[in-house]
Write a structure and sequence with these properties.
The complex is a heterodimer of chains A (about 230) and B (about 260). Chain A contains 9 helices and no strands. With about 230 residues, chain A is mainly alpha-helical. Chain A has one domain. Classes of the chains: A mainly alpha (about 230), B alpha+beta (about 260). Chains A and B meet through helix 6 and helix 9 of A and helix 3 of B.
Amino acid sequence: MSRPPLALLIPAVLLALGVLALFLFTFFPGGEPVSPYLARDAAGETGAANLVAGVYLNYRLYDTLFEVLVFAVAVIGVRYYLVGQKEGAAPPIPESPVVRTAADLLFSPLLLIGVYLVLFGHLSPGGGFAGGVVGGSGLLLCAIGLGGEVIARRFHETALERAEWLILAGFLLLLLVPVLFGAAPGTNLLPQGTVGNPVSGGTIVIYNILIGAKVFIGTWVVIYYFTRHRGEV
Amino acid sequence: MTVRTVLLLALPVIAVFALTRARRLTAVIAMGLFSFVIAAVYLLFHAPDVGLTEAAIGAGLVTFIYILSIRKTGRLVILADEAPGLLSRENEGITGLEWEILSGFARELGLDPVVRFLPRPEIGHALRRGEGDIGAGGILAGEETPGLVATPGYLPTALFRISPAGGAGRIRHGFEYFGELADAVRRKAPLAATVDLARFMGLARGDLTGYTVAREEGEHAYAFLVPADQPELHSRLCDYLNRLQESGKLDELVRRYLE
């Protein structure tokens, strides 16, 4: 009997383990289920009307921190590996006026929606990740319509890089500040406010703004580097 | 049937549609549509946050990234000078025999044909620099230079020499675009040029009195130029031209555009 190739065997074993783990979780539930607790108490405890934001920027802030770090590492990786590649030289093919006009018209609304999603992430669906991506897509649309270099000229590259590090540092500092007051890192020490008010949720809003800015810049940097070194806009 | 069921049933349909498209842009747009539908499904399953992120990333960002990346690979860039009947501008679009052939070829490859108009002498250089995939617009078979390969001639043609009847005046050689040549003939400027049959017919539609026209010796045929570093494109184009000839479609197109 011939042995199955390793490339097939490994995914098969992993899949089997995954299914087994699912079964184990179903058969051995541990302690009180968490969802009724969240539905009952989360809004009051975190001050965020949007429970999702309450979970990932308060109870599970560590997960979010590492998500942001993963994103930052991805951006660094793109920068590091593409900067040595030669730049594409082909002249850009002029885009049709339809795309140009659409890019002009859509850019401001998209940016506005992005900002709204970031600022109201603790009240309604949205948050830093989604808002940042929406803003970044607006920028990308502009890059398709007007050419990447036109957009790139408006951003100072070193300033962008510095802003990225500052945001990351701000995130970590904000996480550590509660230690000075004798609380665990990441504790929300700001007043919760009235649930449902624009000013509520304490640090959640600040985290959302930081993440939104980070994702917005990161999206642009990744796409700009890819188009400059591997293709064209 | 609830809305949820309809949307869930639509998902595999859209997915299969996207996977089976030959044209990349259609496939990318279909994938964006898939993301929108699945975002709506998330919304109906009471996960608006996930739905919003799916719409922003799947339908927005990823679609844009794909569009950016197929811009270079998803186009068949044709470099040509205008040649009436073969490849010329008409209102907003492009028309002619070669346009018909090449856009059919591009469709078969799943690419979007794009024409960049260049002065005829510059087409070869631009192709060699990798600025385009195919040179067209009255290229003659055997017009090969290092770095470029021509397809076999697909249509016999002839060359005509136009020169002033009296031989008087300062003779102008060399014309950047066909439009300039036509303009010079219209103004009755003293000029000397050798043109192919399609361009000659285009000029003869105006008034050629005052010029001596002589047919040049030799057998000539129209062809297309392909950069030598794209042998696969060359063989596929030759194959496509062969099939057009065998099916009789080429004759039909020639009748439509050149008679």
